[in-house]
Design a protein that fits this description.
38% of the residues lie in helices and 32% in strands. It starts with a strand and ends with a strand. The protein has one domain (2-70): Alpha-Beta Plaits (2-Layer Sandwich). The longest helix is centred in the C-terminal third of the chain and has 15 residues, at 49-63. It has 71 residues and is α+β, with helices and mostly antiparallel strands. Strands 2-3-1-4 form a 4-stranded antiparallel beta sheet.
Length: 71
């Protein structure tokens, strides 16, 4: 399953790279791409999107506390 999310409050390109790497390391994630300029997250999962998205939200909050994933 593939879905695109808006990242509200993503403030730095370095944080975007850290978020992308951390998401790609999660189990069940087939591919993840974070684009700082458009503030988009493209997430492809092999498993249930909702289960993976819950973990992604935790990671994003840890790396960039002011950033919110818009469903």
């Amino acid at each position: 399953m593939r879905k695109v999310f808006d990242l509200d409050g993503l403030d730095c390109a370095n944080c975007a790279a850290k978020i992308e790497a951390a998401i790609q390391a999660l189990p069940g994630v087939k591919n993840a791409s974070v684009t700082f300029m458009t503030q988009k997250l493209v997430l492809e999962t092999e498993e249930n999107m909702d289960d993976v998205l819950a973990e992604v939200k935790k990671l994003v909050a840890k790396i960039e506390p002011d950033c919110e994933i818009m469903d």
